[in-house]
Amino acid sequence: MKLFQRIFFAAVLSGLAAGLAMSAVQQWRVVPLILAAEVYENAAPAAEPAAAQHSHEAGTPAHEHEADAWAPQDGPERIFYTVLASLLGGIGLAFLLAAVSVLSGIEITARNGIIWGLGGFIALQLAPAFGLAPKLPGMPAADLVARQVWWIGTAIATGAGMLAIAKLRNWSGIVIAAVLILAPHVIGAPQLAGEHESAVPAHLATEFAAATLATGALFWLTVGPLLGWLNERFVRSPAFALKGAHA
Amino acid sequence: MNTQVQTASVAGLSVSQRLIAGVLALFLGVVLVGGVGFASDMAIHNGAHDTRHALGFPCH
Questions:
Q1: In this predicted model, what pLDDT tens digit does every residue of A199-230 receive, in sequence order?
Q2: Given an 8 Å threshold on Cβ–Cβ distance, is A1 in contact with B53?
Q3: Which residue from B minimizes the CA distance to A56?
């Protein structure tokens, strides 16, 4: 299974490297905003009606305010788990990119890696954020499961749309792409009905939306070229030589 | 002639080779991203909380 070994190591290494870069910027620019928002989130319940804070439908698992669930201590422990989650998530996203490349038959290389990264950013960050803007803790939001379903559907539809252009390279590809990419936004992301007061000041929220998109762009534009470069290197490496490749 | 080595690419492999490797990679990606971004287990949610917010995943 030389092909899988090649993808495996390329995805793990590129996901780790890009995940590390993302983690550094996360801790610098994103996490401080989350911590600042939590001060307002934790101060809010006394002043606000509970419904504005917690929009869980019956049966939806409750979240971090449950006292009995494990949670990392603020400080080094919380940073450790955030970095760990970001690294594992980064590797997972690199695997998704590699899987799409292998299954679609479009090789990812050092040269086209930036396009793959851009595609990943658009499908898994920009398009979902267009409907569900990145939210800080303490900001009111619709039902969690409904948002997760819309998020995943949007990511898949957007990715499939871009793939249609890449594979078909004609007008029908563009039409299919337009339909797939627009559909989730025409259907509309789950939103709370009416106006809801947010416990979090607007300046934190706007800074957070910009910071998460920039951090995500850094990850994707790093992981794409890295994955492509490693993929090409491993193709030439004797350790990963494919059957019949030696003439 | 080593040009064949240089150009050994995904497109040159059989469909079944690509399918197996691609599905395995897809599975690993879905498990990792699903665990970090979507798992409803409270301990996982709390550990990955800041990452979920930072990556724009829906979170509480």
A1: 999 999 999 999 999 999 999 999 999 999 99
A2: no
A3: B60
